[in-house]
Design goal:
Layout: H1 6-15, H2 25-41, H3 45-52, E1 56-61, H4 68-79, E2 83-90, H5 93-107, E3 112-115, E4 128-133, H6 143-154, E5 157-168, H7 170-178, E6 183-185, E7 193-202, E8 207-215, E9 220-225, H8 230-240, E10 241-249, E11 251-262, H9 276-279
Parallel strand pairs: 1-2, 1-4, 2-3, 4-5
Antiparallel strand pairs: 5-11, 6-7, 7-8, 8-9, 10-11
Length: 284
């Protein structure tokens, strides 16, 4: 159950038109959108309960990239009179370098960055009151790795800690609204267009293999993606946390999943190693 390599992820995010550079116009607009979303998030009663018991908060952003989500949350908390220290974890060093520089400028204090696999965050010696995964990152995790991620996260959160996942119901949007498509195109850019092609399905992991290619240049990257529905993602979170809630943003099928109070009944070491079904030969 290995994670994508930093090189693979770097190629993917250089290829797709994903607004993550906060110094760019598109990236700044995404940051402004994140600020609006975080203002909704902090109104949730669980967040308010957390804030009522402390005026300093340790934030941990998982798969944080350039830190747009974590910085936005820290900024909104500052407006609420809460001092937030932020740690951003990601596999891509180039993204973390931006998070450290831009985040420090935006917040006026150091943003700690760690190059690491989010599934092993418990090994980093960090503690957090609130963990955040912002930017629809769940497709990078199949159910096996998502269980590891959730278990690892429960070990770094405090007893009344909260995990927040920004997610969308892809089973609804991809399979129900439009139907799965073997070929799609991303919005065109001046440099060209990115086309995405179906390249297979892994029934043991539930992942779709997709090839993304930049046309006309021909640069491509191959990735495995799990198209989560909200129901199974919230159910899995419930196995690791005592309660789960959902706050929609703009659309009823997209928003924040909140999970609070880690159970810590199933620890990361209990999931060490691969189950036999994954050790067997690849899918026929």
């Amino acid at each position: 159950m290995s994670s994508p390599s930093p090189e693979e992820l770097g190629r993917l995010y250089r290829l797709v038109p994903w607004a993550e550079d906060p110094y760019s116009e598109d990236g700044r607009q995404r940051y402004e959108e994140a600020l609006r979303s975080m203002r909704v998030l902090v109104k949730h009663e669980w967040i308010q309960e957390l804030l009522s018991s402390r005026r300093e908060l340790r934030l941990l952003e998982l798969c944080g990239g350039t830190g747009i989500g974590g910085v936005a949350l820290a900024r909104v908390l500052a407006d609420e009179g809460v001092k937030a220290s932020l740690t951003v974890i990601d596999l891509r060093r180039e993204a973390l370098e931006i998070a450290a520089k831009w985040g420090g400028e935006e917040l006026g204090e150091e943003v700690r960055v760690v190059e690491a696999d989010a599934c092993r965050v418990h090994e980093l010696g960090v503690r957090a009151d609130l963990a955040l995964m912002y930017g629809y990152s769940a497709p990078h995790f199949d159910p096996w790795r998502m269980a590891m991620l959730l278990s690892s996260t429960t070990e770094v959160l405090v007893d009344d800690g909260i995990l927040v996942l920004e997610e969308s119901d892809r089973r609804y949007t991809i399979f129900y609204l439009q139907g799965y498509k073997a070929v799609i195109t991303w919005p065109p850019r001046r440099e060209g267009i990115v086309a995405e092609f179906d390249a297979g399905y892994d029934f043991k992991r539930g992942t779709f293999k997709r090839v993304l290619m930049n046309l006309p240049q021909g640069e491509f990257v191959v990735g495995d993606f799990y198209y989560w529905g909200l129901a199974e993602l919230m159910t899995l979170a419930w196995l690791f946390f005592k309660d789960v809630d959902f706050t929609p943003l703009r659309r009823r099928y997209a928003g924040f999943i909140l999970a609070r109070k880690p159970r810590r009944k199933l620890r990361f070491q209990d999931l060490a190693g691969e189950p036999r079904v994954l050790e067997k030969a690849p899918n026929p």
